[in-house]
Amino acid sequence: MTGARPTGRDVARAAGVSQATVSLVFSDSEVTRARVSAPTRERVRAVAQELGYQPQAAGRQLRLGRTGLVHLAVPNILGPFFARVLDGAQGAATGLGVAVVVSSGWDGPTLARAHGDGRFDGLLLCSPDDSQLGGLPDSVPVVFLDAEPPTAPAPLRRTLELDVAGGMAAAVEHLRGLGHVRLGHLRSTDSAHTFRSRQAGFERAARGLEVRETGVSINGGLAAARTAGRELLDRPDRPSAVVCDDDVVAAGLYHAAAELGLRIPDDLSVVGIDNILAAALLAPGLTTVDLPGERLGGAGMELLAALIAGEAPAGPDEPLATTLVVRGSTRSVTRSAGTL
């Protein structure tokens, strides 16, 4: 093979496996033999030989003096979506032979201090707000998850986005297709790129519709969402459908609707974003945009390992697709709803 030196990601793509599997195969440990079948190990090694791959995986780098710890920083460890991200990151980390340490709600200076003394090999920073983006040492490998792409490239900085704007557009178009022309939006007031993207996606998709918006703090949980939901619904021109900036907010709206004697979906259609486990447990089940948190965490961990090993391919990385999951909380507009 000519040109750039082949990487573990090249081997993974050609062999049809994950980069974590490639790292496991070349670690040649008991964990490898327990988790990767013999045919898969043989296929990966054959592909590596064909490509001329020389393993320089994160595990080898760690044995040369690194700590073997990576840091996953999330805004709120109680947020169900971040549990999905951690699950994906932890699964990939196990295959790579590293351990994940999780923190919640750390500001920029705290992150900078934690990464200034070499205790971590790298950082996964998920859904950061604006206060967290400055002060990190340039020498620390960082993968930003569900975050704004950098304006200028940096050797040890990468970003993995979710197509949240596209997901929001799918939610609005679903409601438009059901005949809803008066939409509500329970909009996050939190400072983070992911919510700015949701807002931009909503505004583009809702052009030509009547829109009623109420702000809500995501970190306020169910109580704040219920209060905002009542404010939005307890008005003479209430919407026939509401899009919520996450599923916990949607759950709060369910409570507000019940307190006002409104039935979902007969009187009110509701769409959320995240597709947390509780979305299917609500009655009726919540129509929501699935954000692939496990894929985000796993892909982010593999990319961070490649940064640590000096094997990361040139960017940019494509946003991860989102999918609308339709359940029982939405229905077509009927005159019996009394809102049009």
From TrEMBL:
Q: Does the keyword S-adenosyl-L-methionine apply?
A: no
Gene Ontology MF terms in the entry: DNA binding
| HTH lacI-type domain: residues covered | 6-64
- Membrane-crossing residues? none
Keyword terms of this UniProt record: DNA-binding, Transcription, Transcription regulation
Check the record and name the PROSITE patterns matching this protein.
HTH_LACI_2
Q: Which InterPro entries match?
A: HTH_LacI, LacI/GalR-like_sensor, Lambda_DNA-bd_dom_sf, Peripla_BP_I
Q: Which named protein is this?
A: LacI family DNA-binding transcriptional regulator
**Organism in which the protein naturally occurs:** Streptacidiphilus cavernicola
